[in-house]
């Protein structure tokens, strides 16, 4: 990125409103002359995406299908997943759209879904962790783990571990995580991932998203990048059914400035498709096709210690019952 473009990007990045809204997307995509996603040919590549039946996940899945990839939709509702599968296949003209039905918060279901994928596919080029929702009340997933953490931290940790053998066949495979800019609001607090009675959905969601980004870096340190690369990203503020349902006032006030689902999912698809920096680096956290810092709020950096990172990794191993 030439110097004047870096200056523009930093000006946009400083206030969250300009960076996270459609303004940031519009300016950055124009000044950097982004390659249109439609120009990528993914014929012969396979992509599994969780949370693929609505919002950003559905948008990303359809774009990947239009690019020619074999797309495996992972959803928890059989009827909805099948309707979306048929819709994406029809809209994209791609007959290679499959589905797996499993709840990411149910670890036994994750194991079953992974076994189904392994039985069908000897190779997986891209695994995308996109499933996740912001809940207003505390819910417990099967197995006793708080639902947000089960579906967005432990479930993805387990699924990544189980699918590593076929990701390695792609050499390098890619594991991508849809995080959130909300993670900037909190530090790494492993003990609070299991909240008690004083439950605040937005805070728990932010903690889970912070954990995702930390684990993304740790996976990148743990796995040889010639085997599998790891990246996390956030979509900015996008207009999705999930945002409308969980943050209705925010959606109403910010409506005109929110990104479309396609804009929110752009960097995710780019990370899956581009054979430049996304393929030759690992451990990045991205927004608008550029790596971003991990801390914006004072104090959060102090919580990001090697000891807490190791504690998070070992907690996930124990909760998922695996050792990658």
Automatic annotation (TrEMBL):
Transmembrane segments: none annotated. Gene3D superfamilies: NAD(P)-binding Rossmann-like Domain (3.40.50.720). This is Unannotated protein. It comes from freshwater metagenome. The lineage of its organism: unclassified sequences, metagenomes, ecological metagenomes.
